[in-house]
């Protein structure tokens, strides 16, 4: 049996969704974030040395990193939700599978970190820290996010999903960065908004929410 070590409001929600799409049986072990730091609890270290989610375990096998988990699970399901080898869709699939974490997530994480710098600083330093954080956001992070947003809009201009006409596991990978982008008020365009509506309407997406519990980005 596959066990998903699921952290609330995290990227592991994608793993639950993928399992629902694939129809693979699984169990969920839930973890709550530390209310002060919003980080994963130390109990996850017992599962994987980095103490992060998502992680899945099955018959003594431990798989971490969302992209690796997606590959493991789609292989286990006989290549479901993966385009055929040698097709343009497969080339796009490989790209988006890695882009989601490699390129899309870093500026979103930077935005989150810099937004929290001033509130977490000593009160006497907060005005200075806020000015520095605002400068970095305005000059670097926000322009980078706007470039990514324009890229997504362009890629979705002639197809309903990131790889083409059909929904794939790459769309599941892309869900977290685009949901986070939209939820933080950074201006999701009409095509991204329509794509989010399509994925949120999928029965497996709704079933995964029921299994995983509250999820801020749904």
Helix vs. strand class:
alpha+beta
Shape annotation: globular
Task: Give the percentage of residues in beta strands.
Answer: 5-15%
First and last CA, distance: 27 Å
Low-confidence stretches: none
Q: What is the alpha-carbon Rg in Å? A: 18 Å
User: Strand count, sense and closure of the main sheet?
Assistant: 4 strands, mixed
Numbering strands along the chain, what is their spatial order in the largest sheet? 2-1-3-4
Average of the residue pLDDT scores = 93
Number of helices: 7
Short recap of the structure:
By secondary structure, this protein is an alpha+beta fold.
Describe the structure.
The chain has 218 residues and is of the alpha+beta class. Helices cover 54% and strands 9% of the residues. It contains seven helices and four strands. The chain has a four-stranded mixed β-sheet, covered by helices on one side. Strand 3 and strand 4 form a beta hairpin. Helix 1 packs antiparallel against helix 5 (169-183), helix 1 (12-22) packs across helix 7 and helix 3 (88-117) packs parallel to helix 5. It is globular, with a radius of gyration of 18 Å. It starts with a strand and ends in a 6-residue tail after the last helix. The mean pLDDT is 93.
């Amino acid at each position: 049996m596959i066990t998903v070590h699921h952290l609330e409001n995290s990227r592991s929600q994608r793993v639950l969704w993928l399992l629902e799409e694939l129809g693979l049986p699984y169990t969920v072990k839930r973890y709550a974030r530390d209310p002060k730091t919003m980080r994963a609890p130390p109990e996850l270290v017992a599962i994987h040395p980095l103490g992060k989610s998502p992680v899945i375990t099955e018959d003594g096998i431990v798989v971490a990193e969302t992209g690796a988990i997606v590959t493991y699970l789609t292989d286990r399901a006989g290549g479901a939700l993966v385009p055929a080898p040698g097709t343009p869709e497969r080339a796009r699939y490989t790209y988006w599978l890695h882009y989601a974490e490699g390129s899309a997530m870093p500026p979103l994480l930077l935005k989150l970190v810099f937004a929290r710098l001033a509130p977490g600083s000593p009160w006497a330093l907060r005005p200075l820290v806020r000015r520095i954080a605002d400068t970095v956001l305005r000059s670097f992070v926000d322009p980078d996010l706007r470039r990514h947003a324009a890229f997504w809009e362009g890629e979705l201009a002639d197809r309903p999903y990131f790889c083409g006409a059909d929904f794939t596991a790459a769309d599941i990978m892309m869900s977290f960065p685009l949901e986070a982008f939209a939820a933080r008020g950074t201006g999701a365009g009409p095509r991204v908004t329509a794509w989010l509506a399509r994925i949120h309407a999928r029965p497996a997406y709704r079933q995964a929410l029921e299994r995983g519990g509250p999820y801020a980005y749904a």
